[in-house]
Amino acid sequence: ILMVDEKGKNMKCLTFFLMLPETVKNRSKKSSKKGNSSSSSSSKLPPVCYEIITLKTKKKKKMAADIFPRKKPTNPNTTAVQQYHQQNLNNNNTIPAPNWQGLYPTIRERNAVMFNNDLMADVHFVVGPPGGTQRLPGHKYVLAVGSSVFHAMFYGELAEDKDEIRIPDVEPAAFLAMLKYIYCDEIDLAADTVLATLYAAKKYIVPHLARACVNFLETSLSAKNACVLLSQSCLFEEPDLTQRCWEVIDAQAELALKSEGFCDIDFQTLESILRRETLNAKEIVVFEAALSWAEAECQRQELTATIENKRKVLGKALYLIRIPTMALDDFANGAAQSGILTLHETNDIFLWYTAAKKPELQFVSKPRKGLVPQRCHRFQSCAYRSNQWRYRGRCDSIQFAVDKRVFIAGFGLYGSSCGSAEYSAKIELKRQGVILGQNLSKYFSDGSSNTFPVWFEYPVQIEPDTFYTASVILDGNELSYFGQEGMTEVQCGKVTVQFQCSSDSTNGTGVQGGQIPELIFYA
């Protein structure tokens, strides 16, 4: 019987041998046959075969975790392991108790305690650029199990026996995120460090962490960061991420070109964007974005942002801007007065607009193709009645979801059923009550049952498998066409669109009939 006190000390081992009654009886019979014998003769008797039995008690057998109870975490929603993870992130190196191994039932949890912990550390990393370094402990065996690069570094043929390794090209936060994955089997990514973490995962060949970083970037991809991610995806050789970036840049080109991230891209990425045939933007926006990039590049090269220096850093990329395809007003009031063009170039472009015999230009003069919008029509027929469709400031609304990422550019709307008329339309797109896009514009209907496009200022990115609410408030001729025989699911190219009724609809529009007959989108 193992006797243990509450603190796990003063242990005593007590052994009891119990003679079963049957054994005692048999032994007595053997002794009686020989008559009375002395004590010396009794010692010559064959040894008794004892049986060792287990004493059962009503108390439950205690395990190590019961003997050494865990400390309650300060936050009831977090576990003790998570607390130590947080401590180790700060390199507190707190060990819970001398017998801390008994606190954790799995090898994964015990291994996690070693994360960023000096206990038993046999290597240290000095991570980060000069002036921003952080010294982090490591354990060669754990690191080698998690990365083939670390295995070669510590156990390969050319392994170096160094106690301290300098890594100036990786950010400390990113290196910690990689170590946390290797030690704890946990992926902890943040928007401001995910690119640096991807770099670390690629450098040390941790493929599952790299894949998680790419997935994180894809889900957080937007027009604001698409240009920067495009540059990085090419650097990291991630073709899927590159393709997703191009989808966003093409569809939301003006937003992407006006973003701060556009000014941070490298020259090679700038050229690839300016060459893009499917860029869905006005050329004056492309021109202004290129000038903003040139100004930022002058600062990076520690040059004064003069006209000459801007043109110098742009180099041949300037001629990738399709200036001759601009509207004449945009050229006259914008590019012609920017100073970035020479006088000769300005004169030739003006002649290109006006002269019958056009001069040869270094600039690309063919307009970009842009993107062709797709239309998802949800009604099989339309009709009109003498007393419908009336508006009076009420909202027509429908909910929809798609199975692939698309970009809603606008809605196709019905017009007047009794001759030509002009309408004012306030269109809106929401997700879970949050407005993603809206616009107030006018359109002219010719009295036919055709639909007429009304556009958002910028296309709105729509994620798959989530319902969005499309709404419109119309003001105009009160008698208009309306759709009927509505479909709950429509296949439009490679995109499947599902429709359901919206509680925001106060004017009768639903799945079976009403307004908003078309969704106009890029895919």
UniProtKB/TrEMBL annotation:
GO biological process terms, semicolon-separated: cerebral cortex development; dendrite morphogenesis
Pfam family, one: BTB
Keyword Iron (UniProt): no
Domain of life: Eukaryota
Subcellular location(s) per record: Cytoplasm
Biased composition (Low complexity): 34-44
Gene3D superfamilies for this protein: 1.25.40.420, PHR domain, Potassium Channel Kv1.1, Chain A
Gene this protein is translated from: Btbd3
Name of the molecule in the record: BTBD3 protein
Species, as recorded: Nycticryphes semicollaris
GO CC annotations, alphabetized: cytosol
Keyword 4Fe-4S: no
